[in-house]
Amino acid sequence: MSVPATSNPVFDALPDLSRRQLFRFGGAALAAGMLPGIAGAAPEAPVRGGTLVAIAFPEPATLATHLNGANPISLVTSKIYDRLFVEGNKHELLPRLGLSAEPSADGKDITIKLRKGVKWHDGHPFDAGDVKFSIEKIWPLQATTITNVIARVTAPDSHTIVLHLKEKWPILLRYLGQSAGQVLPQHLYEGTDIATNPHNNKPVGTGPFRFKEWQRGSHIVLERNPEYYIAGQPYLDRIVWKVINDSASRAAALETGAAHFAARNPITFGDVARLKGHRDLVIDTKQYEPNSYWLEFNLRDPLIGKLAVRQAIAHAIDRAALVKTVWGGYGAPLDAPVPSGVSEYFTKDVPRYPFDPKRAEQLLDQAGFPRKAGGWRFRLTHDFIPFGDDYRRTGEFVRQALRKVGIDASLGAKDLSTWTRDVFTDRKFQVISTWGGWSRDPQASLDVRFGQRGDRRGVPWSKVSGYSNKEVDALLEPTRSGADPALRKVNYKRVQQIVQVELPVLPLLEVYFFSVYNRRLKNADELPYPTRNNFANVWLAKA
Into which family does the record put it (predicted)? Predict the structure, then answer.
């Protein structure tokens, strides 16, 4: 028997008018009933209660996603704060705090109707003032792709906001579902120093789970919000995020059932091979957006600032071997700025740097760095992102590759807070390795990596290379509206060609992330990304 299209509780709550409006920009997927959690057979009846034990690694540095958009932070806070909309598995826009988004005839105004009867976790009523405040004061800290195109925000009534755009921007709705900032409480943040507000680490949201406690180095506890706006949800009583830094201990916790869920490669690839056949576990690779992993160079450095040095580093690294030996085949070599998963804009027509150690040595010689006594040309420190074993091993692989061509490379061994400060605020590094996710639209990622709008000192995950190119900026500017698809393809291809010549960033591989969760856990894969799924509809079957 088929499940009706309205089996999704969020969608059930919509008035008919809002459903029609969502049909308008959700496409055929909504009309066909392709909503999260829908299958061809009758769903199991949810079991109420229970504690979900999830793994946090590395431990979040803060719970302020508006200050630091790192995935370990968003994974937790997405259960506390709800957003206006969220993207579904078929790229449809699903309602959260927003019920509908109606563009004006000229496309320059977007009217968003908000859900009524919502309360913040402290009991204060949610209204349009919270959304207006968040868009004006909070989102510019992270979601600049959206806020840069908004001229002003008005609130005609307590449950309506209007976004007045600087220009027609048809792709706004896409970004609202993918990367819009969370909505924060105006009554707790207005008039305060947002960066030091105590609620950054004791968050008060509108989501299905309330913040209870955080014992650093041990755990974060979220408890069920009994006044959540979807009747009967959430099903879980609480979520306990256990901080487990050692990969072997994470594998043991998942294997024994002591933990039920962990995201983004929580165990080694050797353990994946061993646990794939485990009757109680699911290895899920379907939840993740396209991801790329790269080296980013500090062009201010007198060594790394030389193009020939960066080209030599590119030729010194065997990407195929990196994918096979370090990433266990959960990836693919990448020699273009945009990964192939962003299929509409991916191009192979860019300069490439095949593995060629001899060419690397020639370039270093020509750059004035011959081998000296002991065989070394110069010293270099590689600060890998401290997110776990895969990243450390990637750093070690790169270190060994560079040493083979005479670069005395060493690894920085920093905790996440130190790494974030040194890289994004102080710019105190030579080379980093890091990764990032890509949406179906690459504008935001290209801006952040290569464009002038990526120059945001102190903002994690923004551009740190110091790279600047007026032609790149000129190519990115007219593509923001999304109004001319043909121009976007031409300009994005040209941007990729330019930056692949100048190499402020060296692409290494596409990463195929996976989650590991217990089969008792239901609907963990309801939405495409764990950092967007608020787990309101997640439940634990009885053992």
Answer: Belongs to the bacterial solute-binding protein 5 family.
Helix (H) or strand (E) holding 53: strand 51-56
Contact 312, 363 (CB under 8 A): yes
The Cβ of residue 47 has, within 10 Å, a number of other Cβ atoms equal to 14
- Distance (Å) of CA 374 to CA 180, 181, 334, 411: 53, 52, 33, 20
Cα–Cα distance measured from residue 333 to residue 349, given in angstroms and rounded to the nearest whole number: 16
Query: Residue 259: which residues within 8 A CB-CB, separation 6 or more?
Result: 53, 54, 55, 242, 244, 250, 253
- SS3 category, 372: coil
Rounding to the nearest 10 degrees, give the CA dihedral for residues 495, 89, 132, 457: -40
398 touches 387 (CB < 8 A): no
From 507, 525, 309, select the one nearest 409 (Cα to Cα): 309
- Per-position b or e across 115-128, b if 16+ CB within 10 A of its CB: beebebbeeeebbb
Are 285 and 513 in contact, with CB atoms under 8 Å apart?
yes
* Cβ proximity of 57 and 265 under 8 Å: no
**Residue 87 C-beta-side C-alpha neighbours within 13 Å:** 21
> Among candidates 187, 77, 181, which has minimal Cα distance to 126?
187
**222 touches 239 (CB < 8 A):** yes
- Mapping DSSP to helix (H, G, I), strand (E, B) and coil, where does residue 399 land? helix
Residue 12: phi and psi, rounded to 5, are -60, -30
Enclosing H/E stretch for 304 = none
Low-confidence ranges of the chain (pLDDT < 70): 1-42, 178-180
Query: What is the topology classification, in CATH, of domain 82-192?
Result: Dipeptide-binding Protein; domain 1 (3.90.76)
Tell me which amino acid residue 226 is.
P
Structure tokens at 127: 């209204």
Q: Please, which residues have CB within 8 angstroms of residue 450's CB and are 6 or more apart in sequence?
A: 337, 463, 467, 469, 472, 476, 495, 499, 504, 505
Fold of 207-286+514-540: D-Maltodextrin-Binding Protein; domain 2 (3.40.190)
Domain ranges of the chain: 82-192, 207-286+514-540, 291-511
Residues 309-327: b if buried by 16+ CB within 10 A, e if exposed: bbbbbbbbbbbeebbeebb
DSSP 256: H
Q: Report the CATH fold assignment for 291-511.
A: Dipeptide-binding Protein; domain 3 (3.10.105)
Angle (CA) 198-55-195 rounded to 5° is 20
C-alpha span between 286 and 281 (Å, rounded): 15
pLDDT at res. 518: 97
Distance of alpha carbon 126 from alpha carbon 115, whole angstroms: 9
List residues bridging with 485 in a β-sheet.
none
Helix residue spans in 260-366 (DSSP H)? 269-275, 307-316, 319-325, 357-366
- pLDDT value at residue 42: 60
